[in-house]
Design a protein that fits this description.
mainly alpha; Arc Repressor Mutant, subunit A; two-stranded parallel sheet; 2 strands; 40% helix; globular
């Protein structure tokens, strides 16, 4: 981490946490913040994911809001892409376009 700015270091922690979310599971912005070292970084998680340098390796589409909703402005190809990627992994949405976090939320294990 020598030579990294503080922001780069924080983003790296966030990316490393997001990489751990298993196939077919999601995590919330707040959860990623907490697991990355600071529960107050939820917005920072959003900023980091928006500039994801390697979407093939960092599955930012698995991060949703605390209500189980996907991003309205998904950074990689529009809002429908996030939903399609999650559905391809078996994640189901209810009639309100929400994910059941009790069923699909990764617990950080």
């Amino acid at each position: 981490m020598k030579g990294m700015t503080l922001l780069e270091s924080v983003f790296e922690k966030i990316y490393n946490t997001v990489k751990k979310i298993p196939y077919g599971k999601v995590a919330t912005y707040g959860q990623i913040a907490l697991l990355s070292g600071n529960p107050r970084w939820a917005r920072v998680v959003g900023y980091a994911l928006h500039v994801n340098p390697n979407p093939n390796e960092i599955p930012c589409y698995r991060v949703v809001n605390r209500n189980g909703e996907i991003s309205k402005s998904f950074a990689f190809g529009g809002e429908d892409i996030q939903r399609k990627l999650l559905e391809m992994e078996g994640v189901k949405f209810d009639e309100n376009n929400r994910i059941d976090l009790k069923k699909y939320c990764w617990r950080g294990e």
